[in-house]
Design goal:
311 residues; alpha/beta; Rossmann fold; 5-stranded parallel beta sheet; 4-stranded parallel beta sheet; globular
Length: 311
């Protein structure tokens, strides 16, 4: 498989065919992720998890993924307890971890950090989120969730709602959706629109993209509603954050006119943009989405570290 030994910094590093292969392997990993089957293909391998920005789902799902396949992990979960707090450079941290492990999973607050790490490391680097930049493994998880629910990634109408400016998950997801010919509908506060670089890239791809300002209208014809948190940590000015905080709230009233098969997704954590009452509705897919991060990352680790697909 062409992924063996490769870095994964952006979803743009993967072709449509490679994405399809990852999703196929991930689907076959589900019983192993659930613990009903045993597979030890990563036995003897060590995965370094360097999370220099807070994370719950991404860090723990990578940790679970490696261990479900018999691998081991070493972790920086809190940069204040590592030499980063002493001023150690990213380059030195990466070089050090490359000597300890067979692959490096990096989350960093600065956009471009994962690309720099890949240049410094002689082991594969997987970007687990770099600032407002890219989050390719979340995108693969999102695609797996959509495919499981709808049986396809093609011909769907997907609404991206919330923080489209700083939301790295939607930057990556929009590209992938365009690869599969989905129609993309954008809803955000005016100050949090999709960055020009991303919209220009989608235009070059020939993507079907339109903006909408009415949530009810957008939801009515959607197959997927992808909700994002407005990220306080990305704002330099709390006043600007306060202007857009709480702009949208999805509840059962909003969803009352939706298609029966609409799924509501969220990369989590949520801060009120999806009402708890939605959790019990047939539309809620965000906790399944969080689980699918494990088999997806299992598939990636297997392909990158061993070149093996399904068992």
């Amino acid at each position: 498989m062409a992924l063996k030994g490769r870095d994964l910094i952006s979803i743009r590093d993967l072709s449509r065919e490679e994405i399809e292969e990852v999703l196929k392997v991930a689907h076959r990993m589900i019983p192993i992720a659930e613990g009903s089957k045993i597979d030890r293909r990563l036995d003897g391998l060590i995965v370094a998890l360097a999370f220099l920005e807070p994370s719950t789902r991404t860090r723990l799902s990578f940790d679970t993924a490696a261990q479900r396949l018999g691998g081991r992990t070493i972790t920086i979960a809190d940069p204040t307890t590592s030499s980063v707090a002493k001023g150690e450079t990213l380059s030195d941290t990466v070089r050090m971890l490359s000597g300890y492990a067979d692959a490096l999973i990096l989350r960093h607050p600065n956009e471009g950090a994962a690309r720099l790490a890949a240049q410094m490391s002689d082991k594969p680097v997987i970007n687990a989120g770099d600032g407002a930049g890219q989050h390719p493994t979340q995108t693969l998880t999102d695609l797996a969730t959509i495919q499981e629910a709808h049986g396809t990634l093609s011909g769907l109408r997907v609404v991206l709602l919330g923080d489209l400016k700083y939301g790295r998950t939607v930057h990556s997801l929009a590209h992938a959706l365009a690869l599969f010919g989905a129609e993309i509908v954008l809803i955000s506060p005016p100050s949090l629109k999709l960055p020009d670089e991303v919209t220009e890239h989608l235009d070059q791809m020939g993507a079907k993209v339109r903006e909408e300002d009415q949530v009810h209208r957008a939801v009515r014809d959607a197959d997927v509603l992808y909700v994002t948190r407005i990220q306080k940590e990305r704002f330099g000015d709390e006043t600007e954050y306060a202007k857009v905080a709480g702009s949208y709230r999805i509840d059962n009233t909003v969803l009352s006119g939706a298609k029966q098969r609409l799924i509501v997704m969220h990369p989590l954590p949520r801060l009120g943009e999806i009402a708890p009452e939605v959790d019990a509705s047939p539309h809620a897919a965000y906790f399944r989405q969080a689980f699918l991060g494990v088999p997806v990352r299992m598939g990636l680790l297997s392909l990158i570290l061993t070149g093996k697909g399904s068992s």
